[in-house]
Every structure is written in structure tokens, then in C-alpha cells.
Amino acid sequence: APDIAGRDEANPLAAILSVAMLLEHSLDNPAAAPEVRDAVASVLAEGHRTGDLVLEGEQRETVGCRAMGDLVVQALGAGA
């Protein structure tokens, strides 16, 4: 997303979810993939959103790319 580069606005969830696919298909660790997916789902269930995930007219506080990544890492740690 070159138009928002360096502005902490990108959504990192697709990149994080691609790690689950990497675990399944390239790193021969399919058992770990659901942990990644569950961490992302947990963060979203808690209501956290980057700006691109907020619906028009929805009044919701957003988080930046770094914060979203940190929230997923925390969720992964909570599942350990």
C-alpha cells in the first residue's frame, strides 16, 4: 500500500494469516496454523479494527498497523 506507506495505517492481518498458510504448506507444522488464525479471530472478536475494516457510518475507534500486530502477538501469547 504505497499510498499509506510510513503512516501506520496498513492492515497487517492478511500478512499474519499468510503465516498460518506457511506453517501448513511449507514449514510442515499444520498444528500451529489454527493458533495464528484463532489469535486473529480473537482480536477481531474483541472489536479491534484497522481503518479499512470499519464500515461506513460505524462509530468505532481504530488501531494502526503496529498496534494490530501487537494485539495478535498478545493473543498468541495468551493461547500459549
SSE diagram, text form:
Blueprint: H1 13-25, H2 33-45, H3 65-78
Helix pairs in contact: 1-2, 2-3
Shape: globular
Strand content: under 5%
User: Between the first and last Cα atoms, what is the distance in angstroms?
Assistant: 32 Å
Number of helical stretches of at least 4 residues: 3
**Major beta-sheet overview:** none
Describe this protein with a few key phrases.
80 residues; mainly alpha; globular
Write structural notes for this entry.
The chain has 80 residues and is mainly α. The chain is built from three helices and no strands. Helix 1 (13-25) packs antiparallel against helix 2 (33-45) and helix 2 (33-45) crosses helix 3. The chain is globular and about 40 Å long.
Please sum up the structure shown.
This protein has helices at 13-25, 33-45, 65-78. By secondary structure, it is mainly alpha-helical.
